Amino acid sequence: MIRFNQIFSIFILLSAFVLKAEAQQSKYWVVFTDKEVNAEPAISEKCKENRRMLGLVENQFSDLPLTKKYTTDLEKSGIQPLVKSKWLNAVSANLSDAQIEKVKRFDFVKEIIPIESQAVLANIKHINKNVGKVSNLADVEKQQNDDLRVDFAMKQIGIEHFLDAGLNGKGVTIGVIDAGFFGANDTQTLKHLFERKQILGVKDYVNPKKKDYFGERESASDFHGTEVLNAITGRNFKENFQIGLATNANFYLARTDSGNKEFRGEEDNWMAAMEWMDSLGVRLINTSLGYAKGFSNPKESYTPEQMDGKTSVIARAAKMAVDEKGIVLVVSAGNEGDDSSWRIISTPADVDGVIAIGATNELGMKMGYSSIGPEFLTYMKPNVSCFSLFGTSLAAPVITGFVACIMQAFPNLNNKEIRTILEKSANLYPYGNNFIGYGVPSAKKALKLAAKRPLSEVEPRIIEVAENEKQVEIPMPVGEIAVVFHKKNATHVITQESVKAKYNFIPLKRNPSVKQTTVMTREEVVEVIWKPPNP
């Protein structure tokens, strides 16, 4: 007869065994071979309408739901799917070595992709958890331009041109994927969203059982999404302050980041949120989250070389979103610019087609913390930048509001056209660099470009410095400040500096390591090309 203490001892041993087995599990994507092609695509009529308007394939294979029998068979074998991705035709799951062998024997399993051991998913969130008070915003609809107060980011991009055109994001639906929206319903500058029912839906992928999306706080990061939302759409009628541009847009919100710990399930959550928003017909999505390194388990981190736009699963999903689904995806570049062991952007900002946003100071120089584009990429990263003292997390929503205004005025533009307009309207174009991309977008230029009207602004000019010349002088009024980017080639910056004109010019001296120099003054952009000296 087994006594109670014996039973208790056996229970402890069994528990220890189970815990040990669980500890040996790793996370994987289980990719299926096929789908039921006769199944009904899991997308809304709005999504189909958008695709027809943009000339995209209306019904895509990736829209079909997973074959239910496959997920059921996994569950019957003791494997619990965590996230189901119709885009990847896969589920994520924690698997032991024994379970991996079991899964391999299923004839419907095409591939098992390790998430941990090959560092496919790793995350360094460039959430600024110490975000300070951001300037409040104004009532765009009433066009009270005379006494309208805005912060510097709004002035930098030229908000008055959107206001004069009556643009405030009306008719545009924006998805925000972030770390939580605690207190949004009690925030004065977001009051209009709740009064006018502009929030169309909310999902919490970290805690699916949550019912009070705005009143339950689980971590300090739960404020982050509220700050991001504020930077997209915030306004204050009484004080006539404006924080964001898209004050009349509608929103779907998704919490995918727990804030309490660093784990790969957050990236799974992000993918699920993307698929949800796409199925509802959302064309514009802001995500101020990024993945690179910094997990509690260092083995889970990426290497810088993997920020190539195709290695991470989240990059693959982002690529599908922009190429196949027509989504305008705006992502913060990252806050690792001062981290000598990293410096570069994180994923999915590394994806070609995704609009990665850096941060500048008042002069238009890269903020020290703002992540730069890797030199091995063949395309520009970041794409554009704007002013932000509080991280690229709050630069991205400024540009999201900017895009919403363009989409309101020109709803038939596709995501590639919007990205091109954004880049061409920026103040450095076409001489972008891996510090701030093409620079700061201009509302005035963007509206003209979208309407296919000629630009009246001064075109950038090129100065070629002869082989035997050691210095060139750039004319500029005395006392004015220019921003100078010294580059090793056309796009990769070695150093940046601000230079104040002591005379009626600023001198640039030849440096053997500098091949090209971009000079940004108040009036123009000058590209200096240093011809190599004769051997």
TrEMBL record:
Keyword terms, alphabetized: Hydrolase, Protease, Serine protease, Signal
Record Gene3D superfamilies: Peptidase S8/S53 domain (3.40.50.200)
Pfam families for the chain: Peptidase_S8
Keyword Hydrolase listed: yes
UniProt GO MF annotations: serine-type endopeptidase activity
A biological-process GO annotation: proteolysis
Keyword Protease annotated: yes
Peptidase S8/S53 domain span: 169-439
Signal peptide positions on this chain: 1-23
Active site, renumbered: 178 (charge relay system), 224 (charge relay system), 393 (charge relay system)
Top-level taxonomic group: Bacteria
The family this protein is said to belong to: Belongs to the peptidase S8 family.
UniProt cross-references to PANTHER family, sorted A to Z: EGF-LIKE DOMAIN-CONTAINING PROTEIN, PEPTIDASE S8
Protein name: Serine protease
Source species: Emticicia aquatilis
